[in-house]
Specification:
The structure is a homodimer. By secondary structure, chain A is of the alpha/beta class. Helices cover about 40% and strands about 20% of the residues of chain A. The first copy, chain A, has 24 helices and 32 strands. In chain A, the strands form seven sheets. A seven-stranded mixed β-sheet of chain A has the order 9-8-13-11-14-15-16, with helices on both faces. In chain A, strands 22, 27, 28, 29, 30, 31 and 32 form a seven-stranded antiparallel β-sheet that branches. In chain A, strands 2-1-5-6-7 form a five-stranded parallel β-sheet, sandwiched between helices. In chain A, helix 11 packs parallel to helix 16. At the A-B interface, helix 5, helix 8, helix 11, strand 18 and helix 21 of A face helix 5, helix 8, helix 11, strand 18 and helix 21 of B.
Chain lengths: ~675, ~675
């Protein structure tokens, strides 16, 4: 749908505009008066005029059409105002009012009522509990941030779930002269959410990069879908608050949104090409530079006038899994012609402490030809000329518009002006090497992102069974489902008594395994419900007797017994694998594969992918530690089989939304086959 | 020895003082004239007067005693000037001159000559290739950094191996008003090195914390020894350049020092209580705050006026392995009396967006009683009063001088003055939560550091054999050494021919293992030199024949053959361990223990400790992942045995400095014993 009237309204009503300068409705009106050139209609029941503008009692009293309503009145009145706005055919409303789900159950009720109304209405709503929104071109500031924090125009959009962080960041950005295209405090997301806002910003020509502060998502799959589309055109950079368990608990206590843990967000960001940052300062650097830099290579050139600076930068590159370009003999020979003989011609290129601006220029001209990202380190030394050096760097950039040049100017007073010069000329300018490296790392991941492709997933023609049970399924009751799914499992037969057991063992043979059957006891071995390695009838009888005794003794609730073949007959097993699935509240099914058996808990080596499984997920799994362990232990065929099982499990989870978790552990891998031997489905 | 005349000289000679303002000798003289109140003697062969001061041709011409000589003349002349200084009984010289080992073989020769001279002389030398040294009280600046970068007095000392980084950091510190006690550009360390400088600063009352930028060390053990002594009194914070392999290569190309990799430095820093930082900005924050903060707890309180700020801070604490204090009901009840009902009373304590300075004060007064580190988040919101809030925070600090309070003021223009106020009042003031968290993490590690104790090491009474061989020792020739060392090994017998083999197998029994004996072939299995699981005489004969054939076929250089017992007779083995040692160039022996067998290379799970092994090394090993894996697989006794083996190996490496590496792999662990089955000593 068309959001142009949200960002370019011809008229704005401020419902709850106030004459009291301490009131939010007064600050919003003031900010609008300073920044907005369209018509403003203050709405207030008790006043004729506010801040020199004629006021109206209701939006319906306004004769002119209204594009956008900013609502800042007590929570209880918001729904009826929205209904009025709908009647007045106002297209967009931003609800500033707080007192909704963030403040407890009565607020939650008010919010639910608004949601219900919005289902059948045409008006689109941002908030409630929003700080407002800002556009810089055409300009309006419909927020209650301090009027002294004046956002300037730039090419970065910022969507924030925290109003306080938004105002802090905007304040800092004003000081640092970082510009924005649009700033949206997304609030409680009763209607418009981050995912939809991404879609809006996708086609916004004024926006070159989108930054996000988020704490939770209602619809993770929608976010991924939209983010993938955006990532084809512009980078998204997200700071997710509450990634740690401790942080998630903190987030829960201050907003209404439940947050999940690290893994699912990391996977979702990776899947959709979103650059994930951990700290506000990182987010800040991306706000400044993401629209202006394109990084397509992970091989970096360093030009430095300080050896130590080159060393630290190289350490930082290494920690970020980036590389140094290996310079060709040609380049080295060209460098040798312009640099003193003491210079180090190998990357990092040390052009020495007495480097003049011209020396920087000559070295940069040569390495520009490589078309790789260049980090330029400048440390103010005795004869250094900071501004002049900055000018030469800008010149090089002018000649190579698409070349990513990242100057790092170490020092304080002596280099301040030079840094300002660089920034005013559209270049980054960092204080420390790791800042440049973090930017390169993030933009490289984005720059080489490709949308997911599902060849293997589509090739897998497994007929996915429908799981009708609402109960947990353990043992044979789960095995039948995996059998249908095409996963190779051990043979097993249910039985109730000695006579059935004797029939069962004729099918299964020796050695065999005896287990209790139960859909409530998840860990049968722990209650003594498993006997392994039964070699003959005598042992079998003894095992059954002891199992029955255990059941009586511990009053175990069982559905009967199960007899399995012993998969690892002649100790030929290599390693044990576990294959599992978990339904994430935000992002849906996660498929996990890891070391099983005794190493499972000790080493905690596993790899997760988000369903549906894409080709590149499979590729990454192959190159992961656990992927390599499996490759080393089993043949190619077995490895491919396990990958296929992952896809099948992904499909099972997608078609059966009531399944919460799946555990197949262990899958015994042999040189040329893999056999699942224990099974659990949690519904 | 007494270094007081280095830092409080009554007179300074500047050898190479110059009238040419572009020359280093001119800048040094200028810096001294501005900063130093003692007598200055410019030394220059061709001038009578420089910058208005009488100049001398040689130090010997000066009648007065001279405490310190600053030497800035071409490299070739330095040795003879040092000899003159020695004759003049000058106690200290700082050699600024470059052109020594950093510039190639002829420079290296000059440096070696100076070293030789210094062995028998009394003068103590810093440099060459130093930028100089600075003291702030009493004041002198004997460097050639830009006179506009004026270091101010503070309680942090800074020792740097990179002159360029030093001048950049001093410039930045001047702007940010960070003070120093002493600044030393340590140069090529021909005489005084970091370790000795630590010793000097240990008893310097003006120094409360020591910061280091280092790229390499000549004598790692001396560094550790001195650092441990310093750590008892004041924190050391080190940024090690060239930690990564890539970075080490970069360091090598720009200084003379070879650097080693990550592990050994990390272990050395841990052993000696040194706080290790990775980035210049971290080092910078420690420079400012390390002398003023004592952190003894890893449980933190957060007080915030922004929910999002609390969430991000909690994420950062979690990532740094720190915790949130769990507030008692008493504290919660006290908080509830002063905070609005919407406030979150659980840590992080959210005192809401409209928090007044008084509300900060009241909340802080309550949580101060916990005596835990407090992070105070301030985000500038509509009604916030930054300065007044800063004042209340300072008040709380005044009442609790030892309480670590770490304010984080988010934002830009609106909070600048408040941050300055905090810093002027001796409090930290950070822009981002992760900065406060990094400081707490580092100072907590330091604050809970205890010097190593060697109870277990001393209790181990192993008679350490002397290894005389200069060749590598593989197989039985190494086994005898480990046997003497008390490590339990498989039985093995050497033999040359069929007859000896038959005798050997009578001792060893079946099943057995046949190997070629060679001190040059490290990986015998790879050349087909091993036959496992021989069950009877027939198989034995066949195995020996095939081994002989392989030797002939591949022209293998062998010393004979070896027959071993098969340790894992009835497949009762649990896991395979590898135990090894490596001699690090800087820090001496490293002892490593990890997973052996097929998992060794795949999982790369191992733990390293620096010899000699301290009690806390053992403790950490027990709590490490690999320690837990071993505990789970074997009995207590076996675990203790392995720990004892590590100590023995440590002693073997210490007593036999020609041993470069040791590999015992695998050690098979059974439920109640551990047996080493393959052995290599690299000399």
């Amino acid at each position: 749908m068309d959001f142009s009237r949200l960002f370019s309204p011809e008229s704005i009503a401020v419902v709850g505009a106030s004459r009291d300068p301490g009131k939010i409705g007064s600050v919003i009106l003031k900010n609008l008066r300073i920044t907005y050139r369209g018509k403003i209609f203050p709405i207030n029941l008790n006043t004729e005029e506010i801040q020199g503008i004629k006021a109206y009692k209701k939006v319906s009293e306004v004769k002119d059409p209204i594009d956008l309503a900013i609502i800042s009145i007590p929570a209880e009145g918001v729904l009826s105002v929205l209904k009025e706005c709908e009647r007045k055919k106002i297209k967009f409303a931003i609800v500033i009012s707080a007192g909704f789900k963030e403040s407890g159950s009565s607020g939650l009720k008010l919010e639910e009522d608004i949601k219900k109304f919005l289902k059948t209405s045409k008006i689109r709503v941002i908030g409630p509990n929003s700080l407002g929104a800002i556009n810089t071109s055409p300009s309006y500031n419909a927020t209650f941030i301090d009027p002294n924090s004046k956002p300037i125009e730039g090419r970065t959009a910022f969507i924030s779930q925290s109003g306080a962080l938004l105002s802090a960041i905007v304040d800092d950005a004003t000081l640092e002269k970082i510009g924005f295209s649009k700033i949206i405090s997304i609030g409680n997301e009763v209607d418009v959410d981050e995912a939809e806002m991404l879609n809006v910003l996708l086609n916004d020509e004024k926006t070159g990069a989108i930054t996000l502060y988020m704490e939770g998502l209602e619809d993770g799959q929608k976010f991924i879908k939209n983010a993938i589309e955006v990532a084809k055109k512009k980078p998204i950079i997200a700071l997710k608050g509450g990634k740690s368990k401790m942080g998630a608990a903190a987030a829960e206590s201050h907003t209404g949104s439940l947050t999940d843990n690290n893994t699912s967000y990391d996977l979702a960001f990776k899947k959709s090409g979103v650059i994930s940052v951990d700290n506000i300062d990182d987010l800040f650097n991306f706000m400044r530079d993401a629209p202006n830099l394109k990084i397509k290579s992970d091989e970096i050139v360093i030009v430095t006038n300080a050896g130590g600076g080159g060393v630290i930068t190289t350490d930082a590159l290494s920690a970020a899994n980036l590389k140094l370009v290996k310079l060709s003999n040609n380049i080295i020979s060209e460098l040798s012609k312009v640099l003193p003989k003491e210079a180090s011609l190998h990357n990092p290129i040390d052009i020495l402490g007495d480097a003049t601006p011209e020396r920087y220029k000559e070295a940069l001209e040569i390495v520009s030809k490589l078309n790789k990202p260049i980090i330029v380190i400048f440390s103010p030394q005795e004869t250094s000329l900071p501004i002049e050096t900055a000018k030469e760097i800008s010149e090089i950039r002018l000649q190579n518009r698409d070349l990513p040049i990242l100057p790092v100017f170490l020092g304080g007073a002596r280099i301040e002006k030079a840094k300002r010069y660089l920034r005013e000329n559209g270049l980054p300018a960092y204080s420390y090497p790791n800042e440049a490296v973090d930017i390169i790392r993030g933009l490289y991941v984005y720059g080489t992102f490709t949308p997911p492709v599902y060849t293997a997933y589509n090739k897998n023609k497994t007929k996915v069974p429908k799981v009708s049970s609402k109960e947990n399924l353990f043992g044979l009751s789960a095995k039948t489902i995996f059998d249908k799914l095409g996963i190779r499992t051990v043979s097993g037969v249910p039985f109730k008594n000695e006579a059935e057991l004797q029939k069962a063992v004729k099918k299964i043979g020796y050695p065999c395994v005896l287990k209790i059957a139960s859909n409530s006891i998840a860990h049968k071995a722990e209650v003594g419900g498993v006997v392994l390695g039964i070699k003959n009838n005598e042992e079998l009888k003894k095992a059954f007797a002891s199992l029955k005794a255990k059941v009586n003794e511990n009053h175990l609730k069982i559905n009967g017994y199960e007899l399995y073949e012993h998969a690892n007959k002649d100790n030929r097993q290599n390693i044990e694998i576990l294959l599992g699935a978990h339904r994430d509240r935000q992002f849906g099914p996660l498929i996990g594969i890891g070391l099983g058996g005794e190493y499972a808990n000790l080493l905690n080596e596993s790899e997760f992918v988000l369903a549906p499984i894409a080709d590149k997920d499979i590729n990454e799994f192959k190159n992961s530690k656990i992927g390599k362990i499996i490759s080393a232990a089993a043949k190619h065929k077995v490895f491919d089989e396990l990958v296929d099982y992952m896809i099948s499990l992904s499909k099972l989870m997608e078609s059966n939304p009531q399944i919460k978790d799946i555990d197949i552990n262990p899958i015994m891998t042999f040189e040329d086959e893999a056999i699942a031997t224990d099974f659990k489905i949690y519904n």
